[in-house]
Amino acid sequence: MMLALGNIFRCQRLIQNPVRFLVRNCHKESIPVSWGTPKIGWTKLNFDGSCKGRKGNGSIGGVIRNHKAEFLLGYAESIGRTTSTIAELSALRRGLELVLENGWTDVWLEGDDKTLIDIIVCRRQVKCAELQRHVGHINLIIPELNNCIVTHIYREGNRAADKLAQIGHQLEKPRIWWHDPPNEVGRIVDEDAEGKIILRRR
């Protein structure tokens, strides 16, 4: 009889612990995240790189919008075997090339990889030759712009670029969308324009 009671008490503790864990998590503060509109006359490039699978198959994506939150251009591409940081740099590099090609000169660059933002903004040194090559190219493009700011945003505020990067995995050749994004991206662009807030758990 005592053994049975002991088992009951152990079971109660096992049941109570997950409940207390859930309650603690519910009380943690969430961070409200939303996409921000650029100033009048500015364009905003959100970019993202994706790397998944054992072979590290990479893809890139990005979206460029104006101060009215209107979709101007989107791009996506599969880039083969790579690392996540190189995928992020490739996404930014390709986006900047498209910015220059279209004559946009006041540009807000935004991505969700904090390490990459630190490399660009803080001029952090990188040892990998391929990383150096991408960073060098990016550092040559940025001075061509009249004005440029670079910021980090959580993934919840970078959903349109993230979705395009995911689409990139499915593509056999690079793709650019002008003024009319894929349906799944268009829905996100509309939500961003409306100021939709997504809560990020700490």
Automatic annotation (TrEMBL):
It holds the Pfam family RVT_3. InterPro entries: RNase_H-like (IPR053151), RNase_H-like_dom_plant (IPR044730), RNaseH-like_sf (IPR012337), RNaseH_domain (IPR002156), RNaseH_sf (IPR036397). SUPFAM superfamilies: Ribonuclease H-like. Coiled coil: none annotated. Residues 39-170 form the RNase H type-1 domain. This is RNase H type-1 domain-containing protein. It comes from Gossypium arboreum (Tree cotton).
